[in-house]
Amino acid sequence: MTVRDSRHVSLQKSRGLAVAGAGAASGLIGSLAVSALILLGERVAGLPVGTFYLMLVSAVSQAQDYNTYAIVQGLLLHMLAGTAIGLAVSAPFAISKKAYASLGRLAPAYGLGAGALVWAALFLPVTYGTMMPLLQSLDGQSVVSQRAPIGTLFSIAVSDMLAMIDRIIYTALAFNMLFGLVTLVLTRAFSEAAIGR
């Protein structure tokens, strides 16, 4: 291997690491953007703020302890998942110089496609495979509530949440597509800033 070849390999590795790091950071930012929309959506729908995160923690832990810490744990899980997904969707662009070159002009399309793929491959199986069975096993109970020292501020029956599942599924498609769009557009911008064009 010549000096020129080793330098080329080193530059490829640097570019790949920059793109992967940008993807992880962008996934975190995309996750935060979607989190804001989720919290606003819960408020508009009349759900207690943090319902999504409570249900996420319930599905993962199979526990029914609903407190502020569960909301924070759910938010942290969501951000961790967003970071990991950002890293995963940026991987092809970190590995292939040709794919990276196309990212500049096709980032929005790739992002929307990646978001739809995340929805189909991750959100739908988790919803139908974990969340729905959990909710159905708890049907009839008032499981989601917001509490304060003075008492319960708000609660919603699981049957009401089950009735909203179709709206949640379709709204999640839009949120996941936004996540993909934000993630890949920022991945390109951050990686360009780190390594130049």
Which tags fit this structure?
mainly alpha, two-stranded antiparallel ribbon, 7% strand, transmembrane, membrane, transmembrane helix
| Order of H and E elements | HHHHEEHH
- The level of helicity is over 70%
Number of strands: 2
The average pLDDT is 84
Number of helical segments with 4 or more residues: 6
Low-confidence residue ranges: none
Rg, nearest Å:
20 Å
Task: Give the strand order, joined by hyphens, for the main sheet.
Answer: 1-2
- What fraction strand? 5-15%
When the domains are counted, the total is 1
C-alpha geometry: elongated
Task: Describe, in plain words, how this protein is organized in 3D.
This protein is mainly α and 197 residues long. The protein has helices at 3-45, 51-61, 68-95, 97-137, 158-163, 165-195; strands at residues 142-148, 151-157. The protein has one domain (3-195). A hairpin with a 2-residue loop joins strand 1 (142-148) and strand 2 (151-157). The protein is elongated and about 70 Å long. The model has no long low-confidence stretch (mean pLDDT 84).
Topology, element by element:
Blueprint: H1 3-45, H2 51-61, H3 68-95, H4 97-137, E1 142-148, E2 151-157, H5 158-163, H6 165-195
Antiparallel strand pairs: 1-2
Helix pairs in contact: 1-3, 1-6, 2-3, 3-4, 3-6, 4-6
Compact overview of the structure:
The protein contains six helices and two strands, in the order ααααββαα.
